[in-house]
Amino acid sequence: MKKKNVVVIGGGTGTHTVLQGLKQHHDRINISAVVTMADSGGSTGRLRDEFGYLPVGDVRMALVALASEVDEHEELLRKLFMHRFERGGDLSGHNFGNLFLVALTDILGSEEEAIKVAGKLLRVMGTVVPVTTEKINLVATYDDGVVVVGEHDIDEPVKNRVNNSIVNISVTPRATISDSAKKVITEADLLVLGPGDLYTSVLANCVVAGVREAIGKSSAKVVYVSNLMTKNGQTSGMGVKEHVSEIVKYTSREIDYLVVNNTFLPENLLKNYARSQEFPVLMNVDPQRVSFKVIATDLLSSAKVEKVNGDVLRRSLIRHDPKKLASVLLDIVCH
Questions:
Q1: Cα 172 vs. chain centroid, distance in angstroms?
Q2: How many domains does the chain have?
Q3: Which residues contact 3 (CB under 8 A, 6 or more apart)?
Q4: Rounded to an integer, what distance in angstroms lies between the CA atom of residue 308 and that of residue 183?
Q5: CATH of the domain at 32
Q6: Per the domain annotation, does 162 fall within a domain?
């Protein structure tokens, strides 16, 4: 049987989780990740400012998720790419994988070539491509007319901005979809959007010129994997219905499947989120009254998320389980 093409569009931890699960089925599917080039926070942001290259953090996470780990040497290489320096002056907070990708770009003169070579080194079971090869910044317009430029400032807004809603997202300057991203999207059998920060990870890809058109031309089934928690300053007060509406708005394409967790979330972790005014995404979709199929099942990971020393960014503590998520997606694409 011909292998199906599964394309994950996003960036960050959510995309890493999906890819990690799908990798276990690489003998049955071709896996591609289209990742955002708007990241401007943490180690990635520092390297982007200093060297002027495309951001590498989301690429590195996708590569590591798809990396082979059949023996101790490959597992060590994966750990090396994820290693974050805790000390060392200017090195503190930097990730080795990010530095490696910047060094490769210096040597090869091309970010795309650097990604391909790193992929070979890690023996990735799939393909990682940047959504664009042009340098961009994410732009958010809020309900009070304020415009914020830069993914990091949208992702982690100042305290007096957290109660405002995003009404429009775009990039500056105008950028065009990369040839590699256009190819994998148009040839996809399944397009997976989410989980991940709605605006800064998922939709940051869709506002690049040509992405909406590529999704429109694709005959793929479109799946949205709902986030587990709201994001303060981005999706406060938004339920599953509102998340789906934003996906449709920026892709001009109705989804075919909604995948949502239906198990209870840990109370102790919910208390941590509540302190930041973040809460479970309300399931406010009636499966009987929508055009897409709703798959509600246990998707929750029981693995404890540890804070990595030297990491200055805030990370999610409640996450999807890679294997459970992959099982659902595989069932969709193969039937």
A1: 20
A2: 1
A3: 28, 29, 30
A4: 36
A5: 3.40.50.10680
A6: no
Inform me whether the pLDDT recorded for 298 exceeds 50.
Answer: yes
Give the separation between CA 189 and CA 170, rounded to whole angstroms: 27
Name beta bridge partners: 32. Answer: 7, 127
The predicted pLDDT at position 316 comes to 60
Q: Above 50 in pLDDT, residue 311?
A: no
155 lies in some domain: no
Task: Please tell me the predicted confidence (pLDDT) of residue 161.
Answer: 81
Question: What residues form DSSP beta bridges with 193?
Answer: 9, 224
Residue 138 lies in a domain: no
Bridge partners of 10, per DSSP, are 35
pLDDT for 121 equals 95
CA separation for the pair 215, 229 (Å, rounded): 26
Owning domain of residue 89 = 4-133+179-333
pLDDT for the residue numbered 15: 97
The residue to which tokens 């080795």 are assigned: 96
Predicted pLDDT of residue 292: 98
Asked if the model's pLDDT at residue 313 lies above 50, the reply is no
Whether residue 315 has pLDDT greater than 60: no
Q: What is the pLDDT of residue 312?
A: 46
Cβ neighbours around 100 below 10 Å, total: 18
Answer yes or no: is 171 within a domain. no
| DSSP structure string for 284-322 | ---GGGSSSEEEEE--B--SPPPPPTT--S---SS-B-H
Q: What angle do CA 89, 94, 98 make, to 5 degrees?
A: 145
